[in-house]
Design goal:
There is one protein chain. The chain is an alpha/beta fold. The chain has helices at about 20-35, 70-85, 165-170, 190-210, 270-275; strands at about 5-15, 40-45, 85-95, 100-110, 115-120, 145, 150-155, 175-180, 185, 215-220, 220-225, 235-240, 240-245, 250-255, 260-265. The protein has a 6-stranded mixed beta sheet with strand order 5-4-3-2-1-15. A 6-stranded mixed beta sheet has the order 6-7-8-10-13-14, with helices on one face. β4 (about 100-110) and β5 (about 115-120) form a beta hairpin. α1 (about 20-35) runs parallel beside α2 (about 70-85). The chain is globular, with a radius of gyration of 18 Å.
């Protein structure tokens, strides 16, 4: 699609209440259909939308929730993208092999089917977010996925804190940065701490938009999910999914505590114009950045 043509992009913010995949897929499909009927050409779903956020504990039985690619989920969402004639970004618990699992985003394009996948590179390991137990870090690098609406720089959740990931996607030609997300508060956090955490999360991603002159789409889940571990506080997912423009401006933002769809029109010609007036890539001093590949500078 020519960059001179605006595209309508949207996201689905969901609350998940069970591990019934068919029920959750149908709930997603219902809202995707609403967006498609409103003219949306690209729809993004939140991280691990097929099930509850299972990483609140380390339980080997949870690996039963994973599935191969291609598999039932990719069949379902490929058919939906074809039926609705849209580009769709979904998020799956991928079983690559027994004992080898990934947190994987999958991109479908209208009648073309699955166009590519991205495996989450940065894997957190914090109280309530024990992802290192379940997910092997991605091995596909930072490669945008070409679609009929442009090159999509798809990253996943914890990746969103790392400017290097966004930069490498932009350097490879991404036209939109996309972050399926599952992030929330520990119920024991103070209100002041909750505000600080949310603001940092949004600010860093708006910063990726600014630094790379690219629109950013962030689809987060919402609602409270109790911990399966006794006496643990559970997670209140903070919702507040948003879409920002190439100067970091907020184009749309969802509420914090209810399922909601967002849709905005993005003009990729505006991205071209911003890159011309703020030529960050021209002025990068790549001869001075060698130490970025080190863990630390002593």
């Amino acid at each position: 699609m020519s960059n001179s043509h605006p595209i309508k992009v949207g996201l689905v913010q969901q609350a998940i209440t069970s591990n019934n995949k068919q029920t959750n897929w149908q709930a997603s499909a219902d809202q995707i259909s609403v967006l498609a009927k409103q003219g949306c050409q690209l729809v993004v779903l939140q991280e691990l939308h097929s099930t509850l956020y299972f990483c609140q504990q380390e339980d080997p039985q949870v690996f039963d929730l994973a599935e191969p690619i291609p598999g039932p989920a990719t069949d379902y969402f490929a058919a939906l993208a074809k039926e609705l004639d849209i580009v769709l970004v979904a998020s799956l618990f991928e079983k690559r092999a027994t004992g080898l699992y990934h947190n994987t985003a999958v991109v479908f394009d209208r009648h073309e089917g699955m166009m590519g996948i991205y495996r989450k590179m940065h894997i957190p390991d914090d109280p309530g977010f024990y992802e290192k137990f379940y997910f092997t870090p991605g091995d596909l690098g930072y490669t945008p996925i070409q679609t009929s609406v442009g090159k999509l720089g798809v990253l996943v959740c914890w990746d969103q804190w790392y400017p290097e990931a966004a930069r490498l996607m932009a350097m490879a030609g991404a036209e939109i940065l996309i972050y399926p997300t599952a992030i929330g508060w520990d119920k024991t956090d103070s209100q002041a701490e909750q505000i600080r955490q949310h603001d940092a999360w949004q600010l860093v991603q708006r910063g990726h938009a600014v630094a790379n002159s690219l629109p950013v789409i962030v689809a987060n889940r919402t609602g409270f999910e109790a911990s399966p571990v006794a006496n643990e506080p559970g997670i209140e997912f903070w919702g507040q999914s948003f879409i920002a423009g190439p100067q970091g401006e907020i184009l749309a933002q969802a509420t914090k505590d209810k399922p909601e769809n967002l849709m905005v029109e993005i003009d990729l010609q505006r991205t071209e114009n911003v890159k011309r007036i703020w030529p960050f890539f021209r002025d990068r001093r790549i001869d001075s950045y060698q130490d970025l590949t080190k863990r630390w500078r002593d």
